[in-house]
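User: Hi! I'm working on a homework problem where we have to compare a predicted structure to a textbook description. Could you give me the structure for the chain below?
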Amino acid sequence: MTYQVKIIYPKEEAAENNKLTERTFNEFIDGLELEEVITQYEQLLTKGYSISVNFAPPQLDDKGIEPDPFMIAGRLELAGIPYKATLKLKASGDYESMVKIAKMIEQQDYDYDISAKLQIRENSSVDFEKEGSWFDKDYTKYTILPKASSQDIADLKTLYDALVEEHQKVTINIKAKVKKDDDDSFANQLAAYPPETMIIFKLTDADIYGE
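Assistant: Happy to help. Predicted structure tokens:
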């Protein structure tokens, strides 16, 4: 049960040829056990860094199965960690197919944005000045973005399952609400995520004076 770690260090300024430039440095570490990841986190804190943490679960586990966001959220709940769950979907298609998706979102009382891409071609029936021509499935594509989030992932399950049944590529992003730079909170979060999750540490210099 190992994890991947990506460390994004603060930008460093350097003078080269009478010019001030910024350098960035990222470090990747693979195959770390849970306790080794925690140790890495603690070492960065002792070096004076403040750490913003993001967790990126693998797209597929070692059995070819997508990680279950409801399982991750359930583990956070058992650990007493509040979170925000956000449904992510970028569905594109013709007017009829996007109307179907829009109705699913509306039934769950969520808002959404829709954008249209009109292909104006010499042989296209689409005329920008004529709204009635905007529904030609060969030359018009609609994209829908739901605004669906909750502090209880169960609120998203009905919509999530319905979109999966429609073979839509849908995910749920989970962001824990925890105290920053706290090793106990980090360890509890880490235990909620499956193996091969990438843990991203974005470092800044700690504000030791509290200003």
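For your comparison, note the following. The chain has two domains: 1-67+178-211, 82-176. The helical segments are 34-46, 69-78, 95-107, 157-165, 183-190. Good luck with the assignment!
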